[in-house]
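ok so i was messing around last nite and threw this chain in just to see what happens. nothing serious, just curious
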Amino acid sequence: MKFPFKRYKTELTYFNDYMKMLGKIVNKKHLLELSKISSLIEKKISQKKQIFVCGNGGSAAIANHFLCDFNKGLKVDSNNKIQPKFISLSNSIELISAISNDISFNDIFSFQLENYGNKNDLLILLSCSGNSKNILNTIKITKKKENRCCFNFRFCKKNSSKRKF
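result:
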């Protein structure tokens, strides 16, 4: 589905068309999935667990944005009553380049997760395809430890990933 459909004269008509398009894309199934994810994140925050997030490229930018929205935004909005512990494994270019250079780019996230992760922490993987070796290796570590939840949000084709998550 391509957007925008046409050239808009006002912001309101643009916004109305955008909302209609968004409504067609987001169906009840997606809303139920988002609700489950939201509940799990809320549970992990209340349990004072760490929530790791990572991705490559644009997904790395989204992962890093989680830090702002949750660690600062939620804490401030709750008057310091809620203190989330979000950690982006995509955030440190120094550590990523060191792991990539000395170990392997395929391990830039899994190596960090092995080091920082604790029982019952949450891992959120952001990926367009779900096929990147560093994402797949991180899933292996998550499953190997048998104590973290793992999500993979695929933004592109439904069946683009090599594995089922």
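not much to say yet. Residues 48-165 form a domain with the Rossmann fold fold (CATH 3.40.50.10490).
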